[in-house]
Every structure is written in structure tokens, then in C-alpha cells.
Amino acid sequence: MTMTRGLVLAGGGLAGIAWETGLLLGIADEFPDAADTVLRSDVLVGTSAGSAVSAQISSGVGLQELFDRQIAGTVREIDPGVGIDEITELFVTAMMTPGAGKEQKLQRIGAVAAAADTVAESVRRQVIADRLPSHDWPDRVLRLTGIDIETGELAVFDRNSGVPLVDAVAASCAVPGVWPPVTIAGHRYMDGGVASMVNMAVASDCDAVLVLVPSGENSPSPFGDGAAAEVKAFPAPTLAVFADDDALAAFGPNPLDPQCRTPSALAGRAQGRRCAAAVAEFLAG
Fold this sequence. Notes:
This protein is 44% helix and 14% strand. The chain is α/β, with parallel strands linked by helices. The model has no long low-confidence stretch (mean pLDDT 93).
């Protein structure tokens, strides 16, 4: 019986994109065959930053080139001028809604996201388009998450959804209060990481899953017990790699700041080299 392997790439801003890219290259530095196995995972699940990375690594462009793009001096990313404190305040306000369930709280966050003063959708879409080496869905299983701001429900986009890849990634990366919700077929979507940074349930058909999470293992979550608990509760074997202390320091105070990309990529590569043996052992199990 063939094993279905999954790779779950979690959210974490521009720092997360850079760290995940660097981590994968660091694994390749030490164990090229293991890195190749990871890249050829049967199922890719991307949330927020992870949606960009999963689209990038499935584009056919090599890890070294993707890494070089992260440390390049020129960058087309936009500094949103909004930090983590403002986003945290938005979440706290929504969570204080008396008697509200999870989806109702997500609807409230969505309403704030829709009303926020941000760049135009078209401007943000161009940033995402520049971020992706290919604008076509790959001929493999790639699942990207977003949240419908009106219903609070999780949406999973894939090549059969009839949604352009750029729009799916833009929706998954639409941090509420920072970037505009993305309009797709009359619905508007925000960041897939608002309710869960990992969305492990989207990989429920996998027999083993490697999870890359660009945050600390004990990072709090507005919903549930956090990524570590969600990974632990997954019914199939998993290996989660969380950002270590060096990486967290490299991210700096604002993982949405384009200036964090180079240090985050370098820290990811260093951590990837350190965890490569553990990843190779997991894949061989």
C-alpha cells in the first residue's frame, strides 16, 4: 500500500516565507535526498505565508533560486505600516464578543478587515503575482486555505476550484486589518491563518505529515490550543519543526516588515541544517 505524504506549511508573514524557504534549503544542504522527498510530497497544504511557499516550491523553480530571491536587495513587497500589536488588538477585540461562537468571531474579524483602510485589491494582487514564479496551478495536489469573511467558514482552494492561483494565494495571505480581503466569485476572503496557522484537517487524507511552523512551539492562538496541540492531535504520524530561538530573534518585532526577509531566510537555512537529520529519519520511518 502506497503511503500518502503531506507537507503542511504554516503562516507567519514575510518572515515565515523566508524562514520556510531557508529551512527547506538547509535540509537540502545536509540531506539532498530527504529534501527531494519533502518537495515531492503527495499533498501540499499552505496557509498564509505557507500558501506562497507551497506555490513557489511546486512551480518547478529550485530551492536555491527561491532562497536567493528572499535575500535579494531589491524587493517588490509593500511595508504595510501595521505591526503585530495592531493585529493582536483586532483579535482580542473579536474574542471578547459575548456569547459568540468561533465562526461569529471570525465574521467580526472579517467585518473589520473589510472596513480597514488598506491598499487596493489590485495593488496587493500585483505584489502576490510578483511573488510567484508561476501563475498556473501545478499538476499535483496543492491546497490553499482562506476564510470567507461573511460566513467565517474555512475555504480550501485547489486546481479544481476554478480560482486563479494568484487569487488563491492572495486570499490566503490577506491578513485582516493589514491587507484587503480578496474578492473571488462574489465572495471575499481573508487570511487562512486567522483561525489556525496550520489547518491540519486539510491534510486529513495523509498517512504522514511534515509541518513547518514559523513561530515558537508555545505561541498562543486565538482559537484552540495552538499549532503544537493541533499537530499533536493529528491522527497520523507527524513531525513539526517550529522556529527556534535564533530564528525568532531573526524575525524581529514585525514579521510583516520586508526588512526581515534576509535574516529570516538565513536563520531558516541554519536551522534546516540542524534539523535535517531528524527530518530524514522521519521520512525513512
